[in-house]
Specification:
Shape: elongated
Largest sheet: 5 strands, antiparallel
Structural class: alpha+beta
Oligomer: single chain
Strand content: 5-15%
Strand order of the largest sheet: 3-2-1-4-5
Distance between the termini: 85 Å
Number of helices: 5
Helix content: 40-55%
Radius of gyration: 33 Å
Number of strands: 5
Length: 254
């Protein structure tokens, strides 16, 4: 008479299944061997890929500056600018083999990057104020100085007629009490108010922003080219050195 097997007991003649993995009764947990699909470390981008992405990163900085003048776009534009700027500074200069040269190019890249963003912001703000803003004439009645890491100034404006124009405006050290000013402001509050500029001044800032943008791209591509040339020269110099198999010492050993 056959006896019933308990659930989980191995079958007769030792031919039963052996529990594996986290169901194993004794010993360490066995894990399946890694296959060819195992994740590999991501290789850093090569000079060619970096060179192709430099215009895109520079464009992000330009868009950041143009959009930052709009109040509701400040945070997204800041994220775009940081993404493009950090990518340029972290990826491009390290292609150079010398640390001092790499730091120098970081500084040189940062200058046109900041200039592009600031000039684009001035251009977009001036465009909006000229196209849809209102201009009011007023007089500076007080200049407020704010001390901190940097010194900033605010001008209290008194207008010659009743208006909803802003009574306080950011100004500079050269502004003084009693000066007659023209204030441009957007009734919908799309951008910050500012002193009215001459008609078409925003075009001047737009041109400067584009020049800085082009300079940023050229400087980035030049950095990549310098890195490729210098590293190639180092490899050739190392191959011709006395310690290599093809060097003079190797020839003597033969």
């Amino acid at each position: 008479m056959m006896m019933e097997q308990h659930q989980g007991e191995p079958a007769a003649h030792g031919l039963g299944l052996v529990p594996a993995g986290r169901h194993q009764h004794e010993g360490p947990v066995r894990r399946p061997p890694h296959t060819g699909r195992t994740r590999r470390l991501r290789r850093p981008a090569g000079p060619r890929q970096v060179a192709l992405l430099i215009p895109a990163a520079a464009l992000l900085i330009l868009v950041c500056g143009a959009a930052s003048s709009f109040r509701w776009m400040f945070v997204p534009s800041l994220a775009l600018g940081l993404a493009g700027g950090i990518w340029l500074i972290v990826t491009v200069p390290p292609l150079l083999p010398h640390t001092a040269l790499s730091r120098l190019m970081m500084t040189l890249l940062a200058v046109p990057a900041v200039a592009t963003a600031v000039l684009a912001a001035f251009a977009s703000q001036g465009f909006v104020l000229e196209r849809r803003g209102e201009v009011r004439s007023g007089e500076v009645t007080r200049v407020i100085e704010h001390q901190g890491k940097t010194t900033s100034y605010e001008c209290v404006i008194r207008y010659h007629a009743v208006t909803k124009a802003p009574g306080i405006l950011n100004c500079g050290k050269s502004d003084h009490v009693g000066a007659t000013v023209q204030v441009a402001w957007d009734p919908s509050g799309l951008v910050e108010p500012d002193f009215a500029e001459a008609k078409g001044t925003y075009r001047f800032f737009a041109i400067l922003a584009m020049v800085s943008e082009i300079a940023l791209v050229i400087l980035g591509e030049l950095t990549v080219a310098m890195g490729v040339v210098l590293r190639a020269a180092h490899r050739v110099s190392a191959a011709r050195g006395p310690g290599t198999a093809d060097g003079p010492e190797a020839a003597v050993g033969r």
